[in-house]
Amino acid sequence: IDITERKRAEEHQRVLVAELDHRVKNVLATVSAIISRTQQTSLLATEFATALDGRIRSMSSTHELLSQGRWRGIPLLELVRRELAPFTTADNTDIAGPHTVLSAEVAQIMAMVLHELVTNAAKYGALSTPAGHVRVNWRWRTNGTPRARLVVEWQEIGGPRVSTCNPSGYGTSVIRELLPYELGGQ
């Protein structure tokens, strides 16, 4: 009896299970870190629950997009639209850039960064006022390097005056730590 096909199927299943196991471990480690960091910066239980819920919903939305695309990547435009969706009105956002598909790993990191930018804009920035406007643009920059770098610009217009006295929160630390460490960005 030729069992070649069965052996191939078993090997394929083993690889899929190992990949799933790896992804679940990464997600759980991320959730654990998010809980720990959110708890450090939240004074009230309700504040903690609200912040944690938003961060987990963002992760879930990104996971859904990745799953729909069979983990091959997510268009940056779709990721930006999803993160801004709860706060978007007819004229308070402007999103533009060339068609760019982010790998699963990059998409998960960018989703966290975008979530923190959106949350901060909604709490303290341009999305906290009726006259506020957020502009998100991206482009590819080569500058003579062998690999083009993706440049994402987040601009808030018409929001409250920026206070430089406030200490940095979790969102700012996510952006400052994740981009260089995970993506080699700034």
State the distance separating the first and last CA atoms.
58 Å
Ranges where pLDDT stays below 50 over 5 or more residues in a row are: none
What is the helical fraction, as a range of percent?
Answer: 55-70%
User: How large is the radius of gyration?
Assistant: 19 Å
**Overall pLDDT:** 80
- Total helices: the number is 5
Description of the molecule:
By secondary structure, this protein is of the alpha+beta class. Helices cover 56% and strands 14% of the residues. The chain contains 5 helices and 5 strands. It has helices at 4-41, 45-68, 76-84, 104-123, 170-183; strands spanning 74-75, 93-96, 101-102, 133-141, 149-157. The strands form 2 sheets. Strands 2-4-5 form a 3-stranded mixed β-sheet, covered by helices on one side. Strands 1-3 form a two-stranded antiparallel sheet. Strand 4 and strand 5 form a beta hairpin. Helix 2 packs antiparallel against helix 4 (104-123). The mean pLDDT is 80.
